[in-house]
Amino acid sequence: MASSAFLMYRALTAFEEELVPHGRTEAPLPMKLEAGQELQLCISFNPAHAEGLHSWQVEQALRIQFLEHPHQEQVLLRGEVCCPNLHFQSMAVDFGCILNAAQEERACGQRSASAGSSSGHGGVEEPAQALGAVGDPAQEPADAQDCLEAEVFDVLPLYGLLQPGQSQQVTFSFFGHPNVVACARALCRVQGGPSYELRLRGEASLLSYHLDTTELDFGLQLWDSLLEAEVTLQNSGKLPFTFVVLSPGTATARSPLPGVPLVVPSTGCLEAGQQQVLKVSYLPEVPGLFCKAFQLQVGHLQPEEICLRGEGSFPRICLHLPRNIQGNKRWEQILRELRGELAQDKERERADVLGEAAATEPPPADSDATLDTGLQVQLEDILLKEHILEQQAAVACSAPEEAALRLPARRRLLEAELPEYILDFGCVGLGGIHRRSVKVTSLGHFPVSFQVPGQLLCGTGFSVELERVEQLPCSQSRSFTVCLEPQSARLPLGQAALLLPIQVTGGPTVRLLLRARGVVPSLCLSRARLEFSPLQCGQCQEETTRLYNQLPVPCQWFLSREEPAQKKLYRSTLKIHICHSSQHLQLLVSGSGLEPRLEFQPEVLELGPVLPSSPGAQGTVVVKNPCSFPIEFYSLEYDLQYLAEEQILRALEGFDCRSTLLLPPRAPGEQLPPELLQLSRGQKRLQDQQAKAKPEQPTAQDEGKTSAAAALAKHYGAACLSLDAVVSEAVAAGSSAAGRRARELCSAGSQQSPQQPQDGRSPGWRRYSKARLSRSLSQPSSGDRGRQHSLSSPGQARAGAGQRKMSVVRQLAAESSGSQGSSGSPLVSAPPAQLRLSPRGSGVAELGLGSCVLPQELLVAILSERLQLRDCCQGVVFDGLQSLCAGSTLSALLCLLQAVGNRPHIYFVNLLQDYGSWQARQAAAEERAGREQEAAARREEALLWELGEEEFAALPQQQQAQLESRIRQLQRQRKQRLQLAREQQEQQQRCKEAEELEQQGKGRGKRSLVRQELSVWAYPTAVGLVEDSLICRIKDNPEPVVFQLCCQGVQVKLEVSPRQLHFARVLLHREQSRMLLLRNSCPLPVAWRLSGLESLGQSFWVSQSQGTVGPRSELAVQLCFRASKPLSVEKKIRLEVSDAENVQGVVQVENIQVLAEAYEVALNITLPEGAEGCLDFGVLNVLGSAKQVLTLRNQGQCKLAYRFRLRPAGPSTQDLASHFTVQPQQGLLPLSERPVAVQLLFHPQRELSIEDKAVLLCQVLEPSLRAGGEPMASIPVRLSARAVLSQYSISPAALLDCGAMASGTRRACSFLLHNTGLLPFQFLICRAEQGAAEPTEKGKSSQAQRRQSLEGTSAAARLSCRQAGLTLGMFTVSPAFGCILAGEQQLVRVDCAAGPPGPCQEQLLIDISHRDPRDNPLGIPYTLLAESCLPAFVVDDIEAIFEGHQICSSSNLCPGLQRGQEQQGVFLTDQRKFLFPDVLVGQRATARFSICNRNRVPCDVLLSIKASPRKLKSRPGQVFQVDPAQLCVPSCSQAFATVTFSPQKVQRYQCTFEACLDAQRSPAAGRAQSLSFEVSGEGKVPEVRVLRPARRDRRGNPLLLFRKLPLGAWEKLPLVLQNSGPVPAQVLLDLLDEEGAFFLKARPSTKCLYQAVGMEDSAGEERKLHTASLLLQCGQAAELEVLFRASLPQRLEGKLQLAVLDNPAGASTIRLLGAGCQEDFSLDNIQGLVADREEENLPESSLEEDSLEAAPGHHNQFGACALGTPCSVTFSLTNRSREQALRFQWLPEAPFHFCPQVGHLHAGCAKDVTVTLQSAVEVTFQRHPVRCLLSKICFQLPPEEVPDWDDRLGTLKWVDTTRAPGASWPLKKKVLEPEAEPAHTVLEGSSREVQLLLSAVVTGAELQLPPEELGKPSSASNSEDKAPQG
User: Fold this and answer.
1) pLDDT of 1209-1262, one tens digit each?
2) pLDDT digits over 1312-1369, tens only?
């Protein structure tokens, strides 16, 4: 195919060359073919037609045309050139961003696209372009730039051969140097073919992330609530990373485990720039403070700890009851511990607090009887936590399906068993109801809801008066009552208990133990029989028997007794009944009565007839006493002594319920007891004194009050003060500001007193006030002495003893109490008169000061100062509230209370209240209650009598029977009252007649008359006079006595007028009354009663529904009607008339007709459409107008009139008439359907705001009542209207400063007009003319100014000033006029064109329509400011330019300064050169130079780096760079030019820095400015030196030689590296160890950039590129540890390769050598000096690489020891055998001593051995061998029964020694007896020796001084010599 194509292409080429000559464009010449002729054309193919080595192909057509025929022939020519070509899968390989120090590989497929084989050679031909590190420039690595391609990218394979169609994968590798961004081109050259270019790009970075918070504070939350929060994790780096929550919770988000934070999601991956929200859920484990943390690990970085804080709480309550803790050992133990801790805390606090408080106040006594709230809360918290932890452990141990069925966290708390509260009723009787109050307090941080399930107490006898309490706030209390009714539940005898749970919502269930002991009351008698001695009738003898109640419950009992009434024997059995008990006690009583008896002889004395006016007749009667005791008899009518004694006895108190008063028995002929007689005489004398007392004379009231106050003060040890005395002392002393102020006021008052009073009152009034005041202060009341006596009684004095009290003796004046009844103003009187202050013992009298009313504040200050004195510490008693310095008693009381403050005990003693007045009030209350009961009974009786027949028939039969029974009972009661009244009347009549007869008998002498009453009844049967005679016959008197009797028969009747009560038409809510006149024309009183009133309804009532009309008199009864609703009444009421005593019943009935009608006013006011109950005028401008229309319609039945009135709604709406107009304001509303329209105009004259206020009243009038109508109702109409002025704001206000501008430039500024009002306004801006701000002319009125300002600028001014833009100097303002809607803004643009340098200022006027006329009537002034300047920057201020750098004047100080300044450069002023500090080759250093602009306009500066004049051939652009190349420095500011120095070699570089103004951007600059100076820097490389180990092998490599260790043992040796170079160095450490016996670990003081995790890399950890990486600053040393673990019983070797970044020559290798052995015995913890061991020189032959062995392990070094001083070193002996015991014995080796020297080592045990060195001579031990004999032994007993033994064990004993002379007892000595070695057997052939090497230097102290110091005097001696001179 190739040859054919070649031929074809040759033919084509030949054809083109022959037919188309070179350079010709015309068509080829035709050729002629004869018939049968053939023509051969040679077509050649030229492969070199297309340039390049890429394969290509071409297709063309060879057309053959016939000149004389249209037919054409076409020959297709195709040619192809095949070159060795390759086809790549991608021409760009992007590694993305990888981790620092990591390696990434990418595969790219390549395929041979040629027909032949292709061979090529690849590689990274061009250097990689390091784009620089990403991040902080200070942390950029050394290889961030100019990295070689071999160090960044690699490609494999580099060459190869591909057959046609064959493919091959090419691997590209990218090495991630720290923070590098690299790009490169990989070239693939094909032999015989083209070269291909692949773009490579990669970036390395560190993992970087950000957490928005690392601490979640939940605060106070409910314990059983799920707490949720969010943490945002953001990938702030360029690498994707995975994150994982370490030890995440296994529960779900809905039910997390308590106490375990749950994070969702717990793992994930974040791309660069993404963020993940972690939802953290936490359920507190136990209530209380919690602090939990979880770790979040991002990639391979150290885990980040996120802390959760908060407090879990729950609602809880506390009952103020004791707890049931006794008997539970666990609760008692916890309580003891809590009390112990509390006592310790109190002791610590008591020890810390020093001062008077600790010395004076006694410590609070601890009470063990009750638990305080704090202890209860702590006890409950401990028990709840234990319970919750047990529940959680049970749930964790149960199966998953069982755990799902467990109670939720809320229920766990409810099941906790807490000590129950005890409510003990004690012993209760079976009767009655017992109550106890329980107080519940909320103790938690949340409101608590709880309920007491009262249904659980059903049938138990207990009941609770509280069921549920909702949201009880914290620290608030609620009380409920628990009742016990034993009888209802039949409580058994003995102890009864019930547990009542109180359910707390969200909290623990509180259990209340209710306990009671049922007891049957019982009594016992001390004497079961009482025998009384014989008694006279009328006397009483008392015998005592005691009733004992031996139970703790009260016992009620009752009995009956009988007194002897005659001479007989009495014997009775009294039953003592015990309430609520079946027990009855019997008391046998017996006695005999002696009846006094007299015998009269004769029994009937007959004197015979006696003639009138005769001397009379006499008779003798003999009285005989047949009794054995004397008897006194007397006449009840004529014995004066008996009457006097009866009067005395009636005045006594103390009669019992039987009207009996027991007095001592008296013998016949004796008087009353002397005590009663003395009491009677005292009462009579007191009444006489009170009758003779005069009101003007002062009584003992003041003295009693003062004496009572003094007695109280003496009793309590308090001070006794008075208000005037306190004020007088303060005025006389004058030591305080209050006292001096009071003296000034009193002095002013005394000077003013002779003059006329200021209030205009006459002196007569002052004298009257003075007299009135003196009486009020001195006059006593009738009850004061009684109260004084009761106050001084010992009972009341003892009531308040033992406490510190502040008491005030308050005595209300008698006139004050009288004035209360008359004027009704208590404690308020006229101001006191101007009296002279002259208290006893004060100096006020000498000062001549008078009294005055002090201000309350001043009086309070004086009293407060007085109460601070020492004599008031035990309390104060104030003698009354009367004071000349207070305006009234009330004012004095208020001042005194303010001065006393919040004292705990304040008492008022009122002397006006005594026991007598209290008894009077009680009697009045009882009398009032009786009257109320009687009135209620009368009302009930009246209701029963008024009940109609129809109403009675409608009642049920049961109620009818009850009412009939009640009526009969009332009738009986009425008859009984009548009969009793008659009897009382007759009794009074008889008493009156007896008195008259007695008076007549006294007048006639000693004649005695006998009276007897005779009752005569009259029953007339007809009207008129009835006469009769009563004839009385007298025994033994033949003449009868005739009494004439007569009576008048009267018919009971009342005249009623009128019989029809007609009420006129009454408007609703009004009332009318009518009078009903009842006239009685008969001479007897008549009773009447109105019935049927209830049928009238509630709108009617009468002044009196029943009563009595006196004889021949009239009575007016008022009937009232109040119209409460529209109605028409036409009903009748009945008047029933009867006699006054209701003997005849109802004798007259009159019907009275009642007519009434009530109507209402129906006026409908219709508002405009859309007005929802309010007329809204909206918002208007002031002086605008608006109109609303009201429609009035009369919908009633009568003609009405209306009138509108405006009423103010507040102080700001007093002038509503000037803003509103009503048209028409009044009129008539006839009875028609046509409405009346009323217009309401709103034309505000000022700003006004009315919001839904009823300011318009429509009064409805009754036109027929009077002229103008009478107002019947007022209908308010609510209005809303608002009139406002234009409100605006201009920002910026008053001044627009365009600032400074460069000359020739333009700047656009603006100010904002904001319509802050409610309506739009127009504005106009114009130029301010000179004098425009001056005030207006005087002739122009303020009203015209107001009108012009409100209406805006005049039309002419607007036409002349309106233009689109306003130009003023440098400024152009647009727009200059416009309209701004409410709430919108208008931006006014101000264009400023800067001209010549200098300031510019223009004045504007802004006119706003409808604004306040007082606000700049001519326009609002506004100022425009600008300034034109030239740009420039500072070139001569060295300190400002090199800010932050060191400045040095001379180059001589440069080396020292440069060494001291590591992070900043130095500027040399003498050479104008800036020196960079030492910079690592391949890294960058930056320096910032300040470009300061101190002008007011910005400037543009060009920055450049040029070659130094000394080295013109150098290229500074490769080493020095400046950024940016151009700066724009703001005005009065500065900018920084950053120069970067990147040395490529270890040499010094120099350049020139230049800064100049940009002439193109600052054409107006006055002159060209430039700043130039030299910049110099030097490149350095890092250097690291290995300080330890100091040992080197033959090749000079550091060597770490470990001891030979048993298998599994560890040893560590130090590795110390130091940066000895001038720049920081990064060290890479690689540990090469095939057996894994060596490990590298950094010490805590050394910080690594990264280090492999653990001693062995975990399977899940990412493999590090290096073992460790360090960054060392200059001179810094790093300490690491190399650990060796003997894993194999052989020689073990490893290498630690050390590489210094950016210094390939600084790499070194540290050899590691150790060995392991398998032994059953070892010496451990050898404390030799490692440094000395490292410095040991091994023999030359042992330094060979093959023969090098591990260091001997048993070498212990003491170091330097002092002479005679013991030095000790401790190490360990370890028996590594698991079964065999060993015996060791150290062979003696002076001067070393071992302790213990001999001992046993049990299997698997170790023992410490101390070796001590003490030498008296100087000696040196170098690897001195000491031998230890080691043997295997077997014990005769089992090993576990054999104790451990060595020669240190022994028994300490005290033994007697020699007795001292004169001592009675021998001396004791302490002796240690060694303990015997346990029996054992040494195994044959098991003994061996172990060698220990010891090194030490024993030497004495030496002092060496240099020879030059020997001749100098010491400083101490010099100072001592010079001291005396000083």
Assistant:
1) 888 788 888 889 998 988 888 877 678 889 999 999 888 888 888 888 888 887
2) 999 999 889 999 999 887 655 444 444 444 445 445 544 444 433 444 445 668 888 8
Q: Are 285 and 243 in contact (CB under 8 A)?
A: no
Q: Taking each helix axis as running N to C, give the angle between helix 737-752 and helix 723-733, from 0 to 180 degrees, rounded to the nearest 10.
A: 100
Contact yes or no for 1833/1800 (Cβ under 8 A): yes
Q: How far apart are CA 840 and CA 729, in angstroms?
A: 10
Return the half-sphere exposure (C-beta side, CA atoms, 13 A cut-off) of residue 53.
12
Residues 1276 and 1212: beta-carbon distance below 8 Å = no
Query: CB count, 10 Å around CB of 434?
Result: 18
Single out the residue of 1016, 1000, 1020 nearest to residue 1008, CA to CA.
Answer: 1000
Percent of the chain, pLDDT > 70?
79
Q: Is 1134 exposed, middle or buried (0-12, 13-18, 19+ CB in 10 A)?
A: middle
Query: Tokens 């109802």 appear where?
Result: 1146
1491 strand-pairing partners? 1535
583-592, 1332-1341, 1399-1408, 1622-1631 — which one is most confidently predicted on average? 1399-1408
The closest of 1327, 1326, 1346 to 1336, measured between CA atoms, is 1346
Residue 822 host element (H or E): helix 814-823
- Per the DSSP assignment, residues forming a β-bridge with 1228 are 1201
Are 742 and 854 within 8 A, CB to CB? yes
Neighbours of 1192 (CB within 10 A): 20
Distance CA 506, CA 531 (A): 72
Q: Which amino acid is at 1515?
A: R
The CA–CA distances, whole Å, from 1580 to 1521, 1549, 1617, 1676 equal 19, 12, 20, 17
At residue 498, does pLDDT exceed 50?
yes
Question: What pLDDT was estimated at residue 724?
Answer: 87
CA dihedral sign, ordered 1699, 1703, 1704, 1710: negative
H or E element in which residue 810 lies: strand 806-810
In whole angstroms, give the CA distance from residue 1151 to residue 1138: 15
Give the full edge-to-edge strand order of the sheet including 288-298: 215-222, 304-313, 288-298, 241-245, 267-270
The answer to whether 1052 and 1139 are in contact (CB under 8 A) is yes
Q: In this predicted model, what pLDDT tens digit does every residue of 237-288 receive, in sequence order?
A: 888 889 998 877 677 766 777 888 888 888 899 888 899 999 998 888 788 8
Are 243 and 296 in contact by the 8 Å Cβ rule? The answer is: yes
pLDDT over threshold 50, residue 798: no
* 1852 CB-near residues (< 8 Å, 6+ apart): 1870, 1871, 1872, 1873
Element spanning 941, H or E: helix 915-946
Supply 1198's token pair: 């009568």
The tally of CA atoms less than 13 A away on the side-chain side of residue 1041 is 7
Cα–Cα dist 748/746, whole Å: 5
pLDDT tens by residue, 1867-1913? 777 777 888 889 999 998 888 888 888 889 988 766 666 665 555 55
Pairwise CA distance, residues 1588 & 1459, whole Å:
27
Q: In whole angstroms, what is the distance from residue 1027 CA to residue 408 CA?
A: 107
Full DSSP string of 1875-1897: PPPPPEEEPTT--EEEEEEEEEE
d(CA 809, CA 721): 10
Residue 902 token pair: 């919040």
Half-sphere exposure of 1320 (CA within 13 A, CB side): 7
- Residue 968: the pLDDT is 77
The pair of three-digit structure tokens given for residue 493, joined into one six-digit string: 């005898």
> Is residue 626 a contact partner of residue 597, using CB atoms and an 8 Å limit?
yes
